[in-house]
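Something for you to look into today, if you have time. What I am after is a single protein written out in full by you. I want to see for myself how the chain folds. Could you add the entry underneath, on a fresh line?
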Amino acid sequence: MSEEFLDLLYAGAPREAFDAVVLGAMSDGVTGDDLERLREHRTVALRIREQMQRQRQREAELSALYETANDLTAIRDVDAVLSAIVRRARSLLRADMTYLSLNDEAEGASYMRVTDGALTPEFRRLRLPLGTGLLGLHRPVSRNTPRTTATTSGSCTGTSSTRRSRARRSGRSWVSRSASTAP
């Protein structure tokens, strides 16, 4: 493999840097088998780069799980345990906000038990009739079944709508991830 690609891998360079090596060689007049070999080396280097990224992500996830287990064994307060779980879920999902909602069957409502990343007190105190709103989307098919959404649609409030607006203006896509479970 080209030493230049190895240097890029070592430096953690972005994909564009690998493409620039091939484009630079083309502008220097490299053609034929030499150019094809360089392209093959780039392909291999990019596969290695992707594998390294997956390994780093897995390492971060395992580290977060270890830290969570460590924290949970030391915490005796239920609210502190739930907060730690929601905080770690947010970190693992790389989400703007996560929450744990509970259903109050007696009142026929879902409510936020713990949130992380919610910027407004109104969201932290949110109570909705069972089966309605975003909390209704997460209503489990059976008890104790976790639910997640890859994206949210419709109207959003607070930080999510702000991020969605910024993303639209910059031409990027916007994704919000959330997870909840109900007893």
The helical segments are 3-11, 15-27, 32-74, 78-93, 121-124, 133-137, 158-170. The chain has two domains: 3-58, 75-180.
